Amino acid sequence: MESIDSKLTRAIMACLFAALISLGAYIAIPIPGTPVPIVLQNMFIILAGFILGPWWGLVAVVFYLLLGTVGIPVFSGGTGGLVKFAGPTGGYLIGYLPGVIIFGLLSRLGKSKWFFNIIAGILGMVAVYALGVLRLKAVLGIDWTKAIATGLLPFIPGDIAKIIIASILTPPILRMLQHIERSASNE
Predict the structure, then answer these.
(1) What angle do CA 118, 166, 105 make, to 5 degrees?
(2) Is 179 part of a structural domain of the chain?
């Protein structure tokens, strides 16, 4: 599958995805026993990698993180500020950076076919979880068993569903964007 070509289109899409990631963070469902909520923002980060590719997807995530860093309430539960990176969920935020690169690179290698996107989604989430659980363990001073039990296991089913949904949505979204771009270039 061809990727969207125009740099202007990609820049606009990166801004759009930063906004979608921000909105996804407002859908935060707390889980008893863990400071890590279930959020929709990671599905939009997966989609950013799949649709924009690794580098423009990274631009979207960096823009999102910068918005939150300067205090705009775009992190889970409508929070913001640099202090979020020092907290127990800061590792997940940082993990979005290598995650989106992995999502985008592997998706492109597989020509955005749903099966390759699922593999890309799983491997990218491994990077997010690795940094997230590591930071959670360090900040809370808990052992690995507790860190994995509170920072990884409760989220696997939902994240698998998000990966599957993003994988299925990507090819038609890319076709639609290509159609829009072709139509715009013919005018």
Answers:
(1) 55
(2) no
Amino acid, res. 59: V
Phi, psi of 9 (to 5 degrees): -60, -45
Can you spell out the DSSP letters for 31-94? -TT-SPPEESHHHHHHHHHHHHHHHHHHHHHHHHHHHHHTT-S-BTTTB-STHHHHSTTHHHHH
- 180 pLDDT more than 60: yes
Tell me the residue range of the domain where 96 lies.
7-172
Q: Model's pTM, two decimal places?
A: 0.91
Provide the token pair at 22.
């921000």
Would you say residue 55 has pLDDT above 60?
A: yes
Task: Please indicate, yes or no, if residue 53 is contained in any of the structural domains.
Answer: yes
Q: What is the CATH number of the domain that holds 166?
A: 1.10.1760.20
Inside any domain, residue 177: no
What is d(CA 120, CA 23) in angstroms, rounded to the nearest whole number? 23
